[in-house]
Amino acid sequence: MSDTAHSPSSSPAAIPLPPRPDAAINQQKPPVWPIVSAEPGVTAPLVAKCARTDREDGICCKELRNEERTLIDPDVVRDVVIGLSDGLTVPFALTAGLSSLGESKLVILGGIAELIAGAISMGIGGFLASQAERDHYRYLKQQTSARVKRSCSGEMEREVAEVLGPVGVDDKTCREVARCLRNVEDDQQSNGALRGVGDEEGAGLRWSDEVGLTAFLLKFGQGLEEIPNARMYISAFTIGMGYLLGGLIPLIPYFFIPKAHVALLYSSLVTGFVLLVFGAVKARVTGAGVGAKGYVWGAVSTLMVGGIAAGAAFGIVRALEGGSS
C-alpha cells in the first residue's frame, strides 16, 4: 500500500443518511433518528430513545404532543373569570337599580364611578392575594428546608413515600428517590457555601432553588410553587381590566337611549348574550368544552350564575325602594 492511504490527513468518506419519509412535512424540525438500544456497555440517553420503527403507524410519540390542545395559563384564566364575572354582574345590578330614577345620564354617572372604584379595588385585591401566596410559599420553604436538614433519612423516605406511594411507586424506588433528592440538595447547598455570598456566577443559577428534597416536598407534597414577583402585577392588571371591560357592557345601552327603563331592557339582553359568549369561551380556554354539549353547558351555566346574581341584587334594590316609598 502507498503512504497516502495511511496518512493521518486522510478521513473516511462521509455517507449521507437517507431522508426521513416525512421530511417534506416537517421541514422546520431537525431530523430525529430513532434509538431503541445502544451497544453493550453504552447507555442510550433517554431524550434520544424512540420506538417509532416498532410502531405500526410509524409515528414518534413526541409528535403526538402536537395533537394536544395548548391551554392558557390557569392563573390568568382565573383572574379573567373573576374580573369579567364581577364586572358583568355588579355594575348591571347597580345600573338596574339606578334605572328607576328615570334618566340614563344619572345611571351612566353612577355606573362609571362604580366601575372605576371597583376596578381599582379588584386590582388591589388581586395584587395582595398574589403577594400573600408568595409570602406564604417563602415561609413554608424556609420551614421545610430547616426540617429537611434536621430530619433523618428514614423520615424523609417516609414523606417521599407518602407522595409517590399513592400513584403506584414501590418503597424501594421511594427510598432511592429520597436519597437522590437529598444528595442533590446537599451538593447544591455545599456548592453555594463554597461560592460565597458575593459570587455573581453562583447567584445566577436560578434552577438551584427548584431542585432537591425541599422543592419536591413543596411542589408535589403540598402542591405549592413559588409565585414570581411579576405575577402580582399581572394579576392586578388582569382582574382590574377584566372588571372594567365587563362593567362597560351593561352601560352601553344607556349611552344611546335617554330613558333608563327602556335602556334597562336592552342592557339585560346585551349582558345575557355576553354571558353566554363568555361561558362558551371560558369552556374553550379551560378545556372543559369537549364537544358541543360542553360549550353549551359552559354558556348556560355562566348565564344562570350571572343572571341569578344580577337578579338577586336587582330584586333587593327594588324591594328597598318599595319599602322606603
List the helices and strands and how they pair.
Blueprint: H1 74-98, H2 104-150, H3 153-164, H4 171-195, H5 200-203, H6 213-221, H7 229-256, H8 260-286, H9 292-324
Helix pairs in contact: 1-2, 1-7, 1-8, 1-9, 2-6, 2-7, 3-4, 3-6, 7-8, 8-9
What keyword list fits this structure?
about 325 residues; mainly alpha; 9 helices; about 65% helix; about 0% strand
**Care to count the β-strands?**
0
**Distance between the terminal alpha carbons, to the nearest Å?**
118 Å
Q: Please provide the ordered H/E string of secondary-structure elements.
A: HHHHHHHHH
Instruction: Please work out how many helical segments DSSP would assign.
Output: 9
Percent of residues in β-strands: under 5%
Helix content: 55-70%
Categorize the overall geometry: elongated
| Structural class by secondary-structure content | mainly alpha
User: Uncertain runs with pLDDT below 50, 5 residues or more?
Assistant: 22-32, 193-207
Q: Give me the oligomer status.
A: single chain
| Gyration radius, in Å | 30 Å
Largest sheet: none
| Average pLDDT reading | 76
Describe what this molecule looks like in 3D.
The chain is mainly alpha-helical. The chain has helices at 74-98, 104-150, 153-164, 171-195, 200-203, 213-221, 229-256, 260-286, 292-324. Helix 1 runs antiparallel to helix 8 (260-286), helix 3 (153-164) runs parallel beside helix 6 (213-221) and helix 8 (260-286) runs antiparallel to helix 9 (292-324).
